[in-house]
UniProtKB/TrEMBL annotation:
It is found in: Cytoplasm. One of its GO terms (molecular function) is ribosomal small subunit binding. Monomer. Binds 30S ribosomal subunits, but not 50S ribosomal subunits or 70S ribosomes. This is Ribosome-binding factor A. It comes from the Bacteria. GO terms for biological process: maturation of SSU-rRNA.
Length: 115
């Protein structure tokens, strides 16, 4: 049952974090950051936030800006979501889009070879 609650909390955090990054965080390095997923542990103590950025060159800058703003983001989430304790945030890059593009290219190559 805790996994269902952790998933719901993760989805709510994803929604709130998108709003926080868009309107509350003033650092221009997070301007093109997109939150793709939030995974929360079953005890709701830690959350892994998966992000993507518009350009690959901005990855390191965006990650350092998010780490710098982590305390502010966490406090804003705590204000918006009623939890006993706000989960500790860890930011990481989501490689799913890159993997999807790689698989699509492989399938396209296989299809072209077969014809």
């Amino acid at each position: 049952m805790s996994n269902v609650r952790a998933n719901r909390v993760g989805e709510q955090m994803k929604k709130e974090m998108a709003g926080i990054l868009m309107s509350e965080v003033k650092d221009p390095r997070v301007q093109f950051v997109t939150v793709t997923d939030v995974e929360v542990t079953g005890d709701l103590q830690q959350a892994t936030v998966y992000i993507t950025v518009l350009e690959d060159e901005q990855r390191d800058e965006a990650l350092s800006a998010l780490k710098k703003a982590k305390g502010f983001i966490r406090s804003e989430i705590g204000k918006r979501i009623q939890l006993r304790k706000t989960p500790d945030l860890t930011f990481t890059f989501d490689n799913a889009i890159e993997q999807g593009n790689r698989i699509e290219n492989l399938l396209r190559d296989l299809n072209e070879r077969g014809e």
